[in-house]
Write a structure and sequence with these properties.
The protein is α+β, with helices and mostly antiparallel strands. It has four helices and seven strands. It folds into two domains: about 20-110, SH3 type barrels, CATH 2.30.30; about 115-185.
């Protein structure tokens, strides 16, 4: 009789564990975080410390529940439990349960979601780096031209100002050239 009761309890525990498959995990935002959501790729800000439900993940982004749909946030901006994330990704990868039935497959709204996320990431990095390159180039040109408009009495100071300007210009050009690596990665 005790063995029968134990067998019933173990079957009940096994059945409830297979029903409670992991489909999402919880996390919190570290600070004010930008979220991209909807078909039009609208953006919004989530305040720091806000609880989010993580549905899926890739190398750069999390898919979270946002406004009755999916939103995408940078993975570095969310606090989460790595063990729970690994368990979620195992479930999403299509592993089999103990009965041999396939586990939940990922529900992706857009079949090119990962590629789109990667393109957004690389284009944002390209934009920031090329903008910094142009800023340093223009600042270098302005610094080199400064002694022409303002009379500096000490020639050593004038030479130092021009050298700083040349250095900033070269740095700007190097940043512009280096920014093309992000276009290649797209």
């Amino acid at each position: 009789m005790k063995n029968l009761l134990l067998l019933i309890l173990l079957n009940g525990a096994f059945a409830t564990s297979s029903w409670a498959q992991l489909t999402q995990i919880s996390g919190t935002t570290k600070f004010k975080t930008k979220v991209t959501y909807g078909l039009e790729a609208r953006t919004a800000r989530i305040p720091g410390g806000h609880a989010v439900d993580i549905l899926d993940a890739n190398n750069y982004f999390f898919t979270i529940k946002y406004h009755d749909g999916n939103g995408y946030v940078n993975r570095k901006h969310i606090n989460y439990d790595r063990d729970e994330l690994n368990e979620l990704l195992k479930v999403k990868s299509g592993n089999l349960d103990a009965k041999g039935n396939p586990m939940l497959s990922p529900k992706i709204d857009d079949k090119y979601k990962y590629e789109i996320d990667h393109i957004r990431y690389c284009s944002r990095k390209y934009y920031k780096e090329i903008k910094a390159g142009y800023f340093f180039s223009l600042a270098g040109v302005a610094t080199v031209a400064y002694p022409s408009f303002y009379n500096i009495k000490n020639t050593d100071t004038e030479q130092t100002v021009k050298q700083v300007g040349y250095g900033m210009g070269v740095l700007g050009v190097l940043l512009i050239i280096d920014s093309n690596k992000w276009m290649k990665r797209i």
